[in-house]
Amino acid sequence: MQELAAARRIGREVRDAEKEQQNKRHVLIVGSVALDTIGTPFGQVTEAAGGSAYYAAIAASFYAPVRIVAVVGSDFPKQHLDVLTARGVSLDGLQVKDGRTFRWQGRYEYDMSQAHTIATELNVFQDFRPEIPKVWRSSGYVFLANIDPDLQSSVLDQVNRPQVVAADTMNFWIEGKRDAVLKVLGRADISLLNDAEIRQLSGVSGLVSAARKVLDLGPKIAVIKKGEHGAVMFSREAHFAAPSYPLEEVRDPTGAGDSFAGALVGYLASQGEASEAAVRRAIVHGSAVASFTVEDFGAARLLTLTRDEIEQRYREMRAFASVEPQPRARKEVK
Ligand code: AMP
Q1: 161-219 pLDDT, tens per residue?
Q2: How do the residues of the chain divide into helix, strand and coil, expressed in percent and rounded to 5?
């Protein structure tokens, strides 16, 4: 009898240890899920599914199982949630509240590096309190996508020390809640800011000094997204510059930063580590996925993207970054 009980206990412990191990490879994302109205010189789209967590989750789902913590209103079309579920994105942390979903309206001019916000309607976000389901608290990889920095902090309060915490933000929060943004970055391992944001945050214009200031806050790695000019990474010991993919046409840059970040964190989770070598590869994966995002409006291109297409672009981008001339990739005949 006693032997049976002992065997059961050991079986339970093994299963728990296995679950814990699997948990460590999951990516937990907190951010916005939105309805976006976007205009660019190439067209426009009204109330497309978007938001920082939405883009990041789709991008990360190419690499690892994903969990979303966010809120939508009762008006959010169910089909957009079904798209996420079909990709293996778990929605147990997504709250559906009576009221209207967060809405963002933005416009880009021919210089697509800058989004001009026309309107931000917080709606159900106003009273959002992230609640992390119990089994999600030991997720190994956490991405704090762009959202109120106090909410980002509350997510960190609820998780057990993850292997990697990456954090993003935007000018809206740097202006309005600067101290809260600094606090979050102080608890992150990787900061993911664009060049304008890191200049605004650090108060210096040189990116090397700006990155230094961010590293002084706490992160081990500062990644700076530079849109069509690629991305750079700074740590105390290393510096790495990744090219962007030379696209003929950028139709809508919305979600580029979020899909870059989602792919980067997802890739690290798939590798189970965040060494400098892994982060370098992750940055190139992030750039590759972001280059697809901007080919079409909203998340349309991400939703038809395949892992093979990502791998192909990753290989091309590795070749671009090489100082030595590389053999030309053969164009596929369709
Ligand atoms: P990006 O990757 O930087 O182009 O981010 C675009 C996404 O950010 C859009 O889908 C918006 O819904 C979302 N967004 C815009 N403003 C905010 C905000 N204040 N808080 C959270 N998400 C936002």
Answers
A1: 999 999 999 999 999 999 999 999 999 999 999 999 999 999 999 999 999 999 999 99
A2: 45, 20, 35
CA of 21 to the centre of ligand 1 (A): 32
Report the chain's C-alpha Rg in angstroms. Answer: 20
Please state the domain count of the chain. Answer: 1
Residue 115 belongs to domain with CATH number: 3.40.1190.20
Q: In this predicted structure, what is the pLDDT of residue 329? A: 54
In this structure, is residue 105 part of a structural domain?
yes
pLDDT at 334: 45
Query: Could you tell which of 104, 194, 200 is best to mutate to test the pocket of ligand 1, judged by most ligand atoms within 8 Å of the CB?
Result: 104
Q: Report the greatest alpha carbon distance in the chain.
A: 76
Q: List, for residues 100-110, the tens digit of each pLDDT value.
A: 999 999 999 98
**Distance from the alpha carbon of residue 130 to the mean position of ligand 1, in angstroms:** 18
Whether 11 maps to a domain, the answer reads no
Residues whose CB falls within 8 Å of the CB of residue 192, separated by 6 or more in sequence, listed in order: 166, 167, 168, 223, 225, 257, 260, 261, 264
In-domain check, residue 303: yes
- 148 within ligand 1 shell (Cβ under 6 A): no
Does pTM top 0.70 for this prediction? yes
In a domain, 330, yes or no: no
Contact 259, 55 (CB under 8 A): yes
